[in-house]
Request: fold
Amino acid sequence: MNADVSQSAHEQEKHHQSKAQLDEEVLQIKAAIANPQAFGALYNKYYLRIFRYVFQRVEDEDTAADVTSVVFSKALFGLNKYQFRGVPFSAWLFRVAQNELNSLFRKNKVQKVVNIPLENLAQIAEDAGEENLEERIEHLKKAMKNLSEDELELIEQRYFENRSYKEMSEILDIEENNARVKTFRVIQKLKNLLTK
Reply:
């Protein structure tokens, strides 16, 4: 498989959907519950986004394809348990993917990979109080090595994937306010690490 996993800002699909789009998606989910063949529309809509999400964390196409396959298999067979909570269906898929990745990292001692776009590094460094761009990026890279996997996940979701706190809460299975507070604390931790 030779998937193109690069994603420009122009290609990037928005995480937020209109009420009409969410309503349409709920109908697609109901159709897929009634007839599993209808799941194909949801699979086609989200496969590449889930694959990219997984690939960004493992940097191996075969592993990413395997994990993505498991995600959609679990989603299809667990679809009757899905509950709409006002966010796109993708949030549920990302949570399933995150659980599969965590399982992979635990079982196989696979090292999690963090790919950070330069513009996102600059934004995080600025939020953490660094001034000189080159210095801030170098300092930030060093500081981020001191973050736990959960803390890195918050940074990835918010800064690299530009997710709302509501969507983050859905993916990470925490309260929305908790996602906001935890992300703030990670930024504060980075600030403290950068001042040392």
